[in-house]
Each structure stands twice: as C-alpha cells, then as structure tokens.
Input
Amino acid sequence: MNLLIRQLLHHKLRTALAFASVLIATLFLVSVIGISNIIQERFVESLNKLSPSLFMVLPFKSSNVLMLEREAKTALVLQMFSKSDLQRISTLPSVKEAYPLIQLTLPVNEYQFSVTGIPAKGAPSVILGSVDLAQGRLYKKKDEVVLGALVAEELDVRPGDNININGKRVKVVGILERVGQSLINADNSIFADYELLREMVDIKSVPAIIGIARNTTQATQDILNYLDLKYHGDWYSVISGESISEQLRAMTDIVKWFFWFIAAVTVIVSLVVIWNAIYTNVLDNYKNIATLKVLGMTKKQVIALYVGQGLVLVGAALLISLPLALWLLSWEQLLGIYLLMVLGGILASYLPAKRASEIPPAEALRYG
Amino acid sequence: MEEIIRLEKVSKAYWDGEELLEVLKDVDLVIYKGEFVAIVAPSGSGKSTLLNIMGLLDPPTSGKVYLKGKDAYAMDDEELSLFRGKHIGFVFQSFNLIPELTALENVTLPMEIMGMDEKKARERGIELLRALGLEDRAHFFPAQLSGGQKQRVAIARALANKPDIIFADEPTGNLDPDSAKEVLRIFEDLHSQGHTLVLVTHDHSIARRAQRIYTIKDKRVVELESLD
Output
C-alpha cells in the first residue's frame, strides 16, 4: 500500500490529471443520471395529470401532438364533422362521453384570447381530465366561464368578476391551473359553454370532438375506423392523452440517451486516461518492478499493486462524488454507478498491471 | 557438507537477432552451505547470466538447477517467486533500491512481500540498519544516501528474510575504494556468521576474499586454485 501510494505521488501531475478525469467523469455521470431522474419525476408527475382516456377528433391531419395548438391555428380545415358524427362517436362502445368542441380567438375586454367551447355537462370530465381548478367552480350556464391562470392574471380578474367576450358580458366562475401536460392549453385559454361560442360564429357543423374513452387505444381505433369508413379521407385525426404520453416519452428518451451517451464517452475517456497513467507508471518503473520480482513479489502481487493504483484513483473520485451521488441518485443507481466505475477502474488498470507482471526480471535489470 | 546449490549440465543461449548466442554450456557446479564463492571473469563472459540462473531469475535453456535439493525451475511462477523471496537475497552493482521508499521501507519491503506483519518487519528493518551502521539514515530516501550507504541498505534488504543464499553481482562496482572495503568487510562478516555467499566480479582483488573461486572458460565453469 505504501509503495502503491508513493508511486502515485511520485508522478504528481500524471496522477492529478488521471484523478481529475475520473472525478469529472464520475460527477458528470452522477449529474446526468440525477438530472434524468428529476426530468423523469417531473414527466411522470406531468403525465399523471394528463388523463390518458381524454381524446380529441380534429378536422385536420396532426403530425405532432406536442405542437397541437400551433397546428390548430395553421391547419387548412376543408371539412368539419357533422352532428351525426358526434352522435355516432358518442355511441361507440369504447367511448364513454363525446362532446363538440370549438376553439376561437376572440376579443376579451381589450385583449385577444383563445376561447374554447365545450358543453357545460362535459366540462367536469373533459376539462378536469387534464387541469385542476385553482379557484371557484366550473361553468354551469351559458353566461359563465372559467379562465386559465395566465388569462386571469392578464385580465386581473377573480371568480365573481365579469368580463366581455366578443361584446357579450359573462361571469368568471373559476380559475384553472395547469399542472402537467394537457391536450388543451389551459393557461392561455378561456373555457366557456359550447352554445355561447356557437351563437357567436353561427356554425352548424361540429368543428371538433372531444371526449372521454373507456379504453383509449380501442376508442382511437374505433373512431378512426368509423371516420375512414364514412369519409375515406385524410383530413381528420384522432389524438389522445396516451399519444401525447408516447411522444413525450420518446422525446425525453432521446434527450436521456443523448446525455447517457455523452456520460458514457466521458467515462470511457477517463478510463483510457487511467490506463495511460498506470501504463506510464509501469514503463517508468520497469526496473523497479523487476526488483520487486527479485525480492519475491509474485505476478498476482504485481497486478494487485497496479490495479490498486487504478482503484485508488477511482476510489478517491467516487468518495468526493459521494455527497452529490447521495443527493441525486437512488441507492440502486448509486451502487450501480459505483460498481461500474470500480469495474472500469479494474479493467483499465489490469492491462498495464498484467504487462508489469510479465516483466522478465533478469532482462529488465540488465537493460531497464 | 550440505549442498545448497547444484547445477547439472546447465546451458544458456540467447537469440541475438538471427544468431543464437550460446553463453553457458553444460555447466556443472555445486555450492555448499556456508561457503563464500566468487565467480571471477571478464565482462560479457556470462557470469551475470550464471548468477541469474542460480538466483531463479532466468531459466536455463537446458539442464537442472537444484536449490536446497529442490528442482528450482520445475516450480511454477508463483512458487518460484515465493522461493526466491524466502531463500535468496540479492545485492546488485547499481543497488536497485526503490527510489520512492525510504531506507527502512526498502529493507522492510521483502518482509512485507512475504506477508510479515508490518510492525515486526519494521523492528527487524531497524535492527538490520543498526547492524550495518545506518540507523540514523533509516528515514532517508535513496537519493539522499551515498553509494556506500545505498549498498549497505541493499545488503540489509538482502538479509531481511534471513535467506539461505546471498547473491552479489559486482557489489563494489559503483563504489569508491573506502566504501568497497566496507562492503567487503560486511560480506566477510556475513560469511563468518554462516551465510552462503555467491559473489560475481571481474575484480581479482575482491574475488581473493572468497573461499572458492571459479571462472568461466569456454562457456564452462572452472574452479581456480589461485588467482596468480
């Protein structure tokens, strides 16, 4: 042990560089996994708030549900659903509830806001399927509305106050707060009764359909089957909370794997640095290793000496990283990473250590 | 007398590029316990090769080497290392001390390699350094010692595991005359205490101190009656 430490300390710069590289790799690995944990936690929390059974049938092709709001504004809507479509969809066995949905940008007091219309009877299941009610209650009548948190802040109103939507005076009865991901952009929206908006724009058909499914996967497919059979077209799409979850999961997975890749590269580089440091130590101590063998050191002891040097470097880095690791990682992850680093350290130092153990003493003493 | 080293038909050849260079051929040699033997020959004659073969550092191309009655090179690598550490002490021309360790640590190293308790090894290390007049240099690093002091540390290290045989390869080669005399005096003392010493040198004045003197002639070991 004495010799092991002394040899490391004898080459201070080399040892310091190798140690720094392992430390950086460990801290990076711990941070990446820790941050992944946090993202994952937030993501799960966010998904938990998103009702997986909520579905939306839109009169345009949606390619990215995460950009739904932007797509809705820019999509070329050539056709809308009929009332019979709504009725048929609502009677599908896999669908529990289905309501017409309309979304308009209207003047509200002196501002412009997106106003979403859903029938009052569908509001509890549809709206509260993905957002929470922060204050007040949901609308029950045609002259009542609930506001997204940002809208309420912008308009500086509270439940009980009146606002003016497109010249019509309505009462604010509740304020919503968005907690996680949602099919509806709740923060910037005003939610009103479907009939109120229909009167304002005089629409006879159904712009979109929103509802709650008994079985999300089956409902999405059933609705598509029905629409395909009826229209044979490609102007509509059915999206669900589940599809948002899938896309979000795929997105976070890409980010996670990217960081894991960078962390893996950092770890590999640090292990190469350890290998190099130990290998150079072996070359520098060629004659000393021969002397150790002359004094009776076995191959195993020589290997242990140099693998030990690698482990001291890794061990010191792991020890320094411990507070961060305890803070960010679960016990399983901590043990996994530490085991991985220790095994990496053994592997990286084993190759030069093996070479050291093979040094022929007589030859090394003569020419070393 | 008890045989401690026996060489039977030992030959050694090296590849020097394309050419096979024969250094020793059919060497037969017996060294008894407690003997002080010198092998004197000019540089390049194969005396260090012979010492390495006897010291279990370099296997012969052919022939048998018996140490304490045991066919040495029939042992596996692990056994060979342990046998070497336990029964053989080496003193080299260039001392071969570990530069990162103090004089005392260099002396305790062979004992620790053999698994001796650190405290006991330290006590014996101090005892050996004291016997060689280096107690006050125990915590000095090799770079802080003179050539003579380094060689005395190397002798203390060679004695650490109470070996049966001590091999010395040109032990005074790098020393000034006074230090060389001191080292030789130590060897004589060790001999008088019953140690078996095998010394390799090209210097006749040193070889004269030995009980028996051998030389290498035509790749064979030949005993000399006198060096005159």
